[in-house]
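Researcher: Please translate sequence to structure tokens.
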Amino acid sequence: MFQYHCLNPISEKGLEIFTQDYQETDQLEEAQAVLVRSAKMTEMEVPQTIAAIARAGAGVNNIPLDECSKKGIVVFNTPGANANGVKELVLAGMLLASRDIVGGIQWVTENADKEDVAKLAEKQKKQFAGCEIRGKKLGIIGLGAIGSMVANAASHLGMDVYGYDPFISVDAAWNLSRSIHHAITQDEIYSQCDYITIHAPLLDETKEMVNQKAFDQMKDGVVILNFARDSLVDEKALVAALESGKVKKYVTDFANPTVAGVKGTLVLPHLGASTEESEENCAVMAVKELRDYMENGNIHNSVNFPACSMGICKVAGRISIIHENIPNMISKVTQTLGDAGINIADLTNKGRGENAYTLVDVESSVSKEVLDVLEAIPGIIRVRAVK
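Model: Translation complete:
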């Protein structure tokens, strides 16, 4: 029996995938698996009893990855599960920034009690006029699941799309429309595009990457959209660029005191993935990841350990071993099992940076004593009998 804990409300569409072998617990300390959305786990002491954490979403800034890696806790996310919801909001943001729809609605609301509101509207509508997005140049920084969907949709709307991503995956590249222009540098995006949308992860090297130097290269009246992370933009420099007219509009999904209420901003209350469909998709993917790891030891979409899968175990047992990515580790594992008279049916090992993961299928059951000997090997962090 596995116990799981939800740190945030999780869609029932996902939770109903758990079988009778899983039981929800209100106590984090009792859980082997955790489901989380926005709860700040960085402010918690993560119990050693936890084997896996699944973030129902893409970003994992709220999870202490270093601490989890040291404890042998596999952290999953759900890339692409909420991509369509964010894509649609980005498109809405471009349209809202292009034509003063918000200002027009506010004007009508304020003048709704006037009998001649229709006649007045005809006189006032010019102040809310804007431009069409068709034929305009859109620059996309980051062509992952969301960025590539935005690129294709914008291309279908008649925009001239430029994409920049030095680390684009093969799958994302295949999914891109042939009409997308491949930008060699971010500077090309900054200097050429009328609209710029950011879909990059927040890393040390990307923090405040859209800064004063970037603004200096941009066209006057550029529109910037940020539905990734607020810290990707130097917001103090942004406010100055809005005041000078360099930036026409800034559309963001992250409300904070620096940008909220500033003239020229359209600030949303983090609605990107807040659709019923996105929440369901993320929950379903997160639960499937947890189940495959807890029941089979397989890792898919982990952010701190390598992808590794051996399907369903068809022999007597399977051992999951999390360890440091150092030489001679596999030989020590096989030697220990050999000394215990345990024959190996299959084995796979994957490394990722300082961390590594090994799955071993064996032809006889493995005692707790043998598992303890394995876990005592220097460099091994966690050992678990999957079957």
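Researcher: Any highlights?
Model: The chain has three domains: 1-82+275-304, 83-267, 308-387.
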